Amino acid sequence: MKSLSEDLQTPKTTLDEFSNVTKRVLEYVPNVITNKTKVRGYLLCSSVIAGTTKYVRPIKTDLFIDDSRIFEKEYENFLSILQKIKNGERSLGKDSYDNIDRVIYTIQQSIGVGLDLLVNANSASVSGKIKWMNFGKQKRMFLTKITSLSDML
Fold first, then answer.
1. Beta strands 52-55 and 35-39, pairing class
2. In the chain, fewer beta carbons within 10 Å around the N or the C end?
3. Which residues contact 27 (CB under 8 A, 6 or more apart)?
4. How is 60-99 classified by DSSP, letter by letter?
5. Can you tell me the distance from the alpha carbon of 83 to that of 23, in angstroms, rounded to the nearest whole number?
6. Angle at Cα 72 formed by Cα 132 and Cα 16, nearest 5°?
7. DSSP β-bridge partners for residue 43
8. Distance of CA 113 to the CA centre of its chain
């Protein structure tokens, strides 16, 4: 298995690959975060290792799933919702929309947090450094393919 740092820098092509790296980051982060502060709905975290402080991007607490086991359950529900959309269901409830928002946000932020801690502080803001890092582009690609999900599931 690749190190988490290598995995974060490897382009992802499937939702399951994004889910797997997200779970790895969620399991890693509690072991290295030394300071947490909640400010206006955001969690601000930092890690001090060998005298070096690394700050991670702010995390919106009402969207971020911080437990890998809960994320795994929510991700399975997410795939079920996507399957319903693929099958033509268009009347989803608020819970389904909330699940989609939380799972996508957690994937996006977990990758950024992992990169902040393991690769380069605020590396997700460095243009072009890692091909798939622009999750907004990935999200748009995902949303345009939502009616033909067989290649992503």
1. unpaired
2. N
3. 68
4. ETTT----HHHHHHHHHHHHHHHHHHHTT-----HHHHHH
5. 22
6. 35
7. 38, 59
8. 9
**Residue 59, token pair as written in the block:** 């995390």
Q: Going along the chain, which residue ranges are E strands? A: 35-39, 42-49, 52-55, 59-60
Please tell me the pTM assigned to this model: 0.81
Classified as helix, coil or strand, 135 is helix
Q: Tell me which of 63 and 13 has the higher pLDDT.
A: 63
**Each residue's pLDDT tens digit, 35-71:** 999 999 999 999 998 888 999 999 999 999 999 999 9
Report which of 28, 29, 23 is spatially closest to residue 106, judged by C-alpha positions: 23
Per residue in 112-147, pLDDT tens? 999 999 987 555 444 333 434 445 555 555 555 554
Question: How do the residues of the chain divide into helix, strand and coil, expressed in percent and rounded to 5?
Answer: 55, 10, 35
Residue type, 82: L
